[in-house]
Design goal:
194 residues; alpha+beta; 6 helices; globular; binds pyridoxal-5'-phosphate
C-alpha cells in the first residue's frame, strides 16, 4: 500500500491538475488530507479515502483509541461545505497566496542567485538548496539573531540529513515581509560563509 498525503492539493496557483496516486490505482493507495490549510488548522479535522476494508479497520482502531471523534470540528467542516463556502474560501486563498509565491520567486532570484530552489505550482513552501559549502543548521542559528525563524531542516529528510536544505513558507507573510525575509536570509548566508 502507498499512503498519499495531500493537504495542499487544492491550493494550486498555476498549471493544471495532474492525477493523484489514487486516481492511478485506487486499490493500492490510502489518501489522507486535512481541512487545516483549506478552512482552519484549529478545527483539527482531516479525512482518509481508502479501500472499504481498510477504512473499516482504521475506523475500528480510531474508536478503540480515542473513543469519539472531534464532532464539533466535524460539524463546523460539514456546515462550511454544506453552505458552499469551502470552494469560495479555496478561491480566496488561491488569490491571496499566488502573488506571495511569485514574490518569493522574484526575491530569491534577486537576493540569492547563488542558491537553487523548487518552483512549485502551489502549496505553502519553497524548498531552498543552499550553495555548496553552506550549512542549514548554522544558517538557522544565525538567522534567529535577525528575527528569522527557520524550521529544523533535518526533520524533512528520512535520513536526517538536509544539511543544505531550508524550507521557506510563503503563505503567512505578505509580499513586503517575504521580500524582507529573503533579504535577511541572504545576509545571514553570506555572514555564515565568511
Ligand atoms: C504534508 C503535511 N501533511 C499533513 C499535515 C497535517 O495537517 P493537520 O494535522 O493539521 O491536519 C501537514 C501540516 O502542516 C502537512 O504539511
Amino acid at each position: 500500500m502507498v499512503v498519499e498525503d495531500l493537504p495542499y492539493r487544492r491550493l494550486r496557483y498555476q498549471g493544471s491538475d495532474i492525477p493523484t496516486l489514487r486516481d492511478l490505482d485506487a486499490e493500492c493507495v490510502i489518501q489522507l488530507s486535512s481541512f487545516s490549510k483549506l478552512l482552519s488548522p484549529g478545527i483539527r479535522v482531516g479525512w482518509m479515502v481508502a479501500p472499504v476494508a481498510i477504512a473499516q479497520r482504521v475506523a475500528q482502531i480510531a474508536t478503540d483509541t480515542y473513543i469519539t471523534p472531534n464532532m464539533l470540528g466535524q460539524g463546523l467542516a460539514y456546515e462550511f461545505i454544506y453552505e458552499g463556502k469551502l470552494e469560495e474560501n479555496i478561491a480566496r486563498l488561491r488569490r491571496l497566496y499566488a502573488p506571495r509565491l511569485t514574490t518569493m520567486m522574484h526575491a530569491l532570484s534577486r537576493y540569492l542567485p547563488q542558491a537553487s530552489w523548487t518552483k512549485p505550482d502551489g502549496g505553502f513552501f519553497v524548498g531552498l538548496t543552499l550553495p555548496e559549502g553552506s550549512n542549514s543548521t548554522q544558517v538557522a542559528e544565525k538567522a534567529r539573531g535577525v528575527n528569522l525563524v527557520l524550521s529544523n531542516s533535518a526533520g524533512f529528510f528520512a535520513d536526517g540529513d538536509g544539511s543544505r536544505f531550508i524550507r521557506l513558507p510563503f503563505c503567512a507573510l505578505n509580499e513586503k515581509e517575504i521580500e524582507e525575509a529573503i533579504k535577511r536570509l541572504a545576509f545571514v548566508i553570506q555572514a555564515v560563509n565568511q
